[in-house]
Amino acid sequence: MLSTEEYDFVRVVQRFVDSEVKPVAHDLEAGDVYPEKLIDGMKELGIYGLAVPEPWGFGRVSAACYVLVTEELARGWMSLSGAMGGHTVVAKLILDFGTQEQKDKYLPRLATGELRATMALTEPGGGSDLQAMRTVAHAQDDEYVINGSKMWISNARHAGLVALLCKTDPSAEPAHKGISLLLVEKGEGLTVSRDLHKLGYKGVETSELVFENMRVPAQALLGTAEGEGFAQMMRGLEIGRIQVAARALGVGRAALEDSLRYAQERESFGKPIWKHQSIGNYLADMATKLEAARQLTLFAARRYDDGARVDMEAGMAKLFASETAMEIALNAVRIHGGYGYSSEFDIERYFRDAPLMIVGEGTNEIQRNVIVKQLIGRNPIPR
Ligand SMILES: Cc1cc2nc3c(=O)[nH]c(=O)nc-3n(C[C@H](O)[C@H](O)[C@H](O)COP(=O)(O)OP(=O)(O)OC[C@H]3O[C@@H](n4cnc5c(N)ncnc54)[C@H](O)[C@@H]3O)c2cc1C
């Protein structure tokens, strides 16, 4: 359950989306324009500080509240929810695993959005098999020297802080024991080499990062011990996957709301199209699955708030919500007929945005691997 303050906050974000985001999203998307003004509005609302408690921030909200805020933003424009998702994961990583010095140094500025953060896991050679990564940070005196490259890094140009997953011991066996997280501030040796052209998720850049003999202080290591980065990031991805599920809820809801309106306005054979059973059935299924996806996502969020390990629950939420959003977006195209295919309507945007939630933050194939591993682990047969 959300507190009264949290409900009020979700309503404030809802109004922001209706009055500030919805009217401009179509044009920003079409021009692939970075939404500077909307990001400023999000900063003012405190959206970049949702994970940061006092004394560094203004008070952390529950994961369930975070889900509903994300859903609202994505309902207006999925790109906005992408502009704060990775940032929140990094803030949580610092909060959960950072030293006192790291918390004091970064959390206050992350909370206001003055400093924005991104996470860099994926490499040109692959994103699913993280243990095969090739980016290496060698300890040298009291510094790390970083070499390698990262691919598909969202907000790379606008983020001042990169949570970099890399190998500090490339020879470690098993490989994950040689993986660490470094908090890297932009500087000499780090280049945002190019932006990647995308099907959707416009306006917010996704880029390649190249590290060439970049030197960072030893204090950049998240926490105090090397070799813990993989486990730290897996915990971070739990909230990341809940957030991606929430983005899918927003895209699905926008597609459903537009379809409900259109199905009442548009007539054929002398009646509104929702009265044709096929169209009515689409709407009924869309609403039912969307609500099921929301409940699954809130379930994962509540378990997360309880402090439980939720890789299975977050994986289920992300898997189901993203596949549901894709299905709803496709049905919205069907309901809108030719106009569903027109770039003058928002429907085609939902259809282009939905696949990101299937691929991002660990593909849905990987989510199924996580889910089944947990299922078998929790239900072993006696031997
Ligand atoms: C717009 C966008 C933004 C992104 N933002 C970020 C970001 O900010 N930071 C970041 O680090 N990454 C980011 N990513 C990367 C994203 O997380 C990866 O694309 C994703 O994890 C998949 O990695 P890959 O693309 O290398 O595919 P691969 O790992 O090469 O996978 C290819 C296919 O093989 C399947 N596959 C691979 N291994 C298995 C297996 N063991 N079992 C079953 N199937 C398998 C995959 O599911 C997929 O279908 C972003 C991606 C996109 C598209």
From TrEMBL:
Its cofactor is FAD. Residues 119-214 form the Acyl-CoA oxidase/dehydrogenase middle domain. The keyword Flavoprotein applies. The keyword Chloroplast does not apply. It comes from the Bacteria. Residues 5-114 form the Acyl-CoA dehydrogenase/oxidase N-terminal domain. Coiled coil: none annotated. Transmembrane segments: none annotated. Residues 227-375 form the Acyl-CoA dehydrogenase/oxidase C-terminal domain. Keywords: FAD, Flavoprotein, Oxidoreductase, Plasmid. PANTHER family: ACYL-COA DEHYDROGENASE, ISOVALERYL-COA DEHYDROGENASE, MITOCHONDRIAL-RELATED. Belongs to the acyl-CoA dehydrogenase family. This is Acyl-CoA dehydrogenase family protein. It comes from Streptomyces zhihengii. The lineage of its organism: Bacteria, Bacillati, Actinomycetota, Actinomycetes, Kitasatosporales.
